[in-house]
Structure formats: C-alpha cells, structure tokens
Fold this protein.
Amino acid sequence: MSMIEFKDVQKYYGDFHALHDVNLKIDAGETVVLIGPSGSGKSTLIRTINGLEEIEEGQLLVDGFDLHDPKTDINKIRKNVGMVFQHFNLYNNKTVLENIMLAPRLVLHRDEAENKRIAMELLEQVGLADKANSMPAALSGGQKQRVAIARSLAMKPKALLFDEPTSALDPEMIGDVLDVMRDIARDSDMTLLVVTHEMSFAKAVADRVIFMADGRILEDSSTEAFFENPTEPRAKKFLSQVEHH
Amino acid sequence: MSEFFNAFTSANMGYLLGGLGITVGVSAISVVLSLLFGSIVGIIQFEKIPFFSSFVGTLNNIVRNLPLLLIIFFTYFALPQLGIHLPIFWATVAAMTFFESAMLAEIVRGGLEAVDRGQFEGARANGLSNMQTMWHIVLPQAYKKMIPPIISQLISLVKDTSLASGIVLAEMTYRGQIVYAQNTNYIIPVLVVLTVVYFLLNYGLSLIAKWFDKKLA
C-alpha cells in the first residue's frame, strides 16, 4: 500500500514553478532518499507532504488523506507523519523532556507516566538521557537534532520526513545523527523520506533514490542502479560533483 | 523661602497624595484591561485573518495616531450625548484602556512576529493545532521578549493619567493645581512633590522591568 502518492502535482511561488508535474509513489515501510542541487525543489516537495507548503494542482495522498481537499484535517496527517528540520526547531521555552512529551500529551492524550517512560526510552535511544532536564539552548547542534528526532518518534508516526537533517551541523556532529537515522531505518517499519547530501548514508540505507532538478523528478531508481549507472546526464554530473567534494 | 515650606501643611499634602490613590487606581485598572485587550487585538492582527485582521489593523492605526486627550474628551464629554454616561473615573479608565490597548497591540504583534518561524513549523509538524502552538510555544516566547517594551508603555500610561486633569478628574496633577491655586508661592513646592511622586512610581516600574530583563536573559 502506498503511504505517499503524488499525482501530477504542481506548485508555484508566484510565477516560479517550484514543483513541475510531480508523480511519485512511496510504499509503506520504504526508505527513500531525495537528492538534487540546491533550488531543485527537494525541500518544497518534502514540505508539501505534511502541509507546510500547499500545492496548487494535482493530487497528493498521504496515509489515505487528500492534502489538496479543503475538507482534509491537516492535523490528522501530521499526527502520523513526523518531520525533522534542518534547523531542529526544538521548543526554545521547554526542556528536552518537555519537548518530547508535549505533543503526545496534547494531541494523543497519552497517560503521563507512560508518556514520560516513552520519552526517556527515546532519549536513551539517541544517547541523551542525561540531557532530559536541559534547555535546548544548552545543547550542541548534533544533540538538538537527536532530540528533534526523539520528539518526532514519540508520536509513533507511520512516516518520518527528514529535511536536510545534517546540513546545519558541524562535521564532527553529523556522524551521531546519521547513526541514529540508520538505526531507525534498520529497526522500524516506518516510511522514511530523507532529503540529504550525504551520499554514503543514501548508499547504506536507501531502498530508492530520487533525483530532482528544476522542480522536476528526473530520476527515480533503486539505490544500486542510481549510484552505479545513473541514466540522467544531470544526475551523473551531480554525483561527480558531490563525490569529488 | 518660608513661603516654600508653608506649602507643606498636612492638609495640602494629604489632599495631594489622596490624588495618588486615584492615579494608581486608574493606572492599575487600565493596565490590566489594556494588557488583555491589547493582546487580543495584537493576536488578531498577527493571525492575518482575511479582511478582519486588516480592518482591526486600520482601526488600531487610527487610534494610535490620535492624541490621548482627545479620546479622554470623547469618553467624558461625547459619550453622554450618545446616551452612555460614565462616572469621571471610569470615563478616564475607558479612554486610557482604549488608547493603551492600541499601543500594546502593536507591541504584541511585533513580539509575535519576532518569534522564529521554525517554532511554528516545529509545533505544527509535531501535530499541535494552531491554538496549542500559540498557547504553549509562541506566546510564552513572545511575552518574554515583550516585557521591557510593555513596561515602558505602562510607564507612559501612568504619566498620561495626568491628562485626566483636563476633564477635572481629581487625580494627583489636578489636585496639585487646586493646591497652588490658593497661593502662587505654592507652585514650586507642589510641582516638586509631584515630580518626586511620579518619579518614584515610574522608577519603581522601570526597576521591575530591569529585574525581569535580567532574570529572563
């Protein structure tokens, strides 16, 4: 069953055609990496999936809901589709533990003891149990991102979207975050869609790679096929640029 | 010089400082009401509800560009002609609240806009509704930033209560005028007393502002 499905989706910013005839199907449980040069529409595409950006034309089905239908309650989708941002977006006015417990408490009405137990388990999983009572401002970028991942996981989502999760991090912080993501890809049956420039991560965990440029999906192939034999000239050029970087 | 000290009779000072109660009363009630209404108006403007927000924004702009004294005259002299009779104390409170709400709304709107967009997106993507996002995440962060400008606005409010002497509300400045009307030699001593009392009142408020600023920094 497909978790996310784009059908002839168009998205404009004024005159700028940000998403061009996007057709894409991601099955439940798949791990898909989305790559492409900056300005290619990757972030726009991933942000339409939880309604942070609206689409102008076409159909976008997420977990059975049609995002282009004004009757769709976007909060129902967001309950089941988490997002991890480039700039973390932790709640600055809440402790690490409260960051994780807030949405399950308010949205899922999870029992308080159970909520705390799950939150602590997740902090354990991302290696930050000792930071439970810290404020986000006291954490490094890599720690913030691991808390942000734990916050998304606490909702027990069906799908998790990563929008350049390591792009704002110092190089020595990237590994810890990618390790956490790799464990999630291996151990969970969540649908994962990751926008990233980390090619070794893509090779290691992705089932499929999608290459975008100028708001279009130019290539959509299995991970091996993409890295060994990309068909699109622009994908070849992009790969040679990032791999020699 | 002895005339100077003659002004400080207990009758004169008691009468003058009795006005302090009215000044503080008008200020305190207006502060609470204008914080409430100012927040509501500021949030409406921030939320950009089609038509409604820009309508409220335009009204707000008009009010902020009127002299407060004109609004005080309106609530005391004009409202009765429209069938609304307010005692002088409440006419002043109504005018102050009307004017200060508009000023505070602008501070609230600015404070909300200063909160990083990422805070909204993080909360909405996490499943929180717009209301929950505002209440738990955005407003607490916005108010923290707004405390210093809000307190400086409240200091203007306290000072502006003296404008109500224009409609003969027996607040402190008006009572000062009554006292020195007895004897022009009392003008300087009365103004000295008013200076000291207004200063202490408002300096106290600004100390509170500094304390908050330090505590929340």
Chain B has a mean pLDDT of 89. Residues 10-47 of chain B form the longest helix (38 residues). The radius of gyration of chain B is 21 Å. Residues 2-216 of chain B form a domain with the MetI-like fold fold (CATH 1.10.3720.10).
